[in-house]
Amino acid sequence: xxxxxxxxxxxxTGLFTLRWEAGRISAIEPQQGQVATxxxxxxxxxxxxxxxxxxxxxxxxxxxxxxxxxxWNQTGTLFEGIERWAERKATVTPEDTKERAHRTIRMLxxxxxxxxxxxxxxxEPGLKTLQAMLEVRDEARPLVDLQIVAFPQxxxxxxxxxxxxxxxxxxxxxxxxxxxxxxxxTRDQGISSIHFLMDLAERHDRLVDVHCDETDDPQSRFxxxxxxxxxxxxxxxxxxASHTTAMGSYDNAYCFKLFRLLxxxxxxxxxxxxxxxxxxxxxxxxxxxxxxxxxxxxxxxxLNVCFAQDSIVDPWYPLGNGNILRILxxxxxxxxxxxxxxxxxxxxxxxxxxxRTMALGDGYGIELGRPANLLILSAExxxxxxxxxxxxxxxxxxxxxxxxxxxxxxxWRDAASSATVASDGMGxxxxxxxxxxxxxxxxxxx
Length: 446
What we know:
CATH class of the largest domain: Alpha Beta
Shape: globular
Number of strands: 19
Strand order of the largest sheet: 6-7-8-9-10-11-12-13
Number of helices: 13
Structural class: alpha/beta
Helix content: 25-40%
Radius of gyration: 23 Å
Distance between the termini: 14 Å
CATH topology of the largest domain: TIM Barrel
């Protein structure tokens, strides 16, 4: 297999044949509106979208699949989640970490994700978990490209030896420098932690991804600090502000001023809609805040913003299955982004925008010479994917089929044998009810 035919590409009209050699795209050929028939060693996209892989820019693989161990997060708050993780972290072993991470990565890959950024807690003397995840990064390469964030879950300045642990994590090979300024004990410590992590990243030429203002507190304003330092140092495109949920509680007068700085800084933003709407607003009675950052406003201001899953069955979020298209669907609903133009380009938030956040550059996209990492989707447009709750049918990595999904068939009860078919009184029967539905999908990771 060395090509896909009858492919529909986003932003282009007509059908295309995509060819590759030695794992890289060698041709993108218009079919001039003609439907091709099977020829040689190729895959028929049947007029469906072919896109580069889905991107997961923010997840915590080291904590995945630990919900309820040893106790459940009963309040549903961010802070109890941190407490429950501290308890579970005391029992973590490298073998445990690797086994759960690999299981979760297979879940992600089964849904067409090939690029993943994971945060790894480095508030741990000895950094055994980080070492385990560095090994996972190499071992999982056949399935995903993995970026690792040195993430100080319990703070940099307010955790004993926090600065030294962060420095050691970068020296060990972490790709990205993280932070959590709103969790530091004082505002001064939060500001100090941002200066430290930005210095560390600049010194070692690393990307930056900060858990920033993940709270409903409108006085949590570390984003302005991160943005200004990024602007002054001209680091904005390499810096990401994750969550920024306090922005949903900022007043508009402050936000008007803030957006001027954000546009000048050129930061990237990540929203984790299902997790944020679950964790935030917990201290409200009614009306309850949605607890998300201002995704449509950031997007319409020309800033790069993408969606992510954040957690899969861990102390912060008890659900999740690796399907980022589920997150996209929920995010667009929660963020009031179901307008016509939003729906026509919805996949941007889980593809190109995430790739830009991860600084994938020429390693991503459907262009000549780029890696033949491709997905065949189950629908012909962004809108159709959302409307049908579509999925990735085939995932190709470096020119080789990585995953195939067969959608289940649905059988319908025959009207003659069904007592549930109702008439509307005008000679028309209602839609027949499904009698049996086969399993939704059959997924094979090659």
